[in-house]
Design goal:
434 Repressor (Amino-terminal Domain), 12% strand
Length: 129
C-alpha cells in the first residue's frame, strides 16, 4: 500500500471521542483515528480485497455469475440483497449460477443494476480483478 492510500484511509476514518471536564461535563470531539486503529481497519479491507479476488477467479472459471462480484464488492449477503431487490433468497441463490444468470430478463437485470448503482452492461461485464 502506498503512503497516499495510507493517508486516505487515515483521513477518511474519524471517530467520536468523549472527554470529561469537571467544569464543563462531558464533551464530544470528532477526530481522526489513532494509528493503531488504522492497522485494524487496513486488515479488514485486506480481507475484503482478498474475497473480491477469490470471487473474481471463480467468475472467470465459470463457477459464479457476475452477481457474486457485486455482492462481494458491496459486502452484501443474500438477506440484504433480498431486502433491496424484493427477490426471494432462493431466487438470488439461483441467479448466482452463470447459466441461470445469462437467461435473466432485462427487468431483473435492471433491478440488480439499480441496487448496485451500475449500468446493466457493467453488471454483465464486471471489472474483475
Amino acid at each position: 500500500m502506498t503512503e497516499e492510500q495510507d493517508e486516505l484511509i487515515y483521513r477518511n476514518n474519524r471517530e467520536l471521542h468523549y472527554s470529561f471536564d469537571p467544569e464543563k461535563g462531558y464533551t464530544r470531539k470528532v477526530d481522526y483515528q489513532y494509528p493503531g486503529n488504522q492497522v485494524i481497519i487496513q486488515q479488514g479491507w485486506d480481507v475484503v480485497e482478498s474475497r473480491i479476488r477469490d470471487v473474481s477467479a471463480r467468475i472467470k472459471e465459470g463457477k459464479l455469475s457476475p452477481l457474486a462480484f457485486y455482492m462481494e464488492k458491496n459486502q452484501m449477503e443474500l438477506p440484504m440483497l433480498s431486502d433491496y431487490t424484493g427477490f426471494m433468497r432462493w431466487r438470488i441463490k439461483r441467479h448466482l449460477k452463470p447459466g441461470v444468470f445469462s437467461r435473466l430478463k432485462p427487468a431483473t437485470l435492471t433491478k440488480y443494476a439499480s441496487v448496485f448503482d451500475v449500468g446493466v452492461n457493467e453488471l454483465l461485464n464486471p471489472p474483475l480483478t
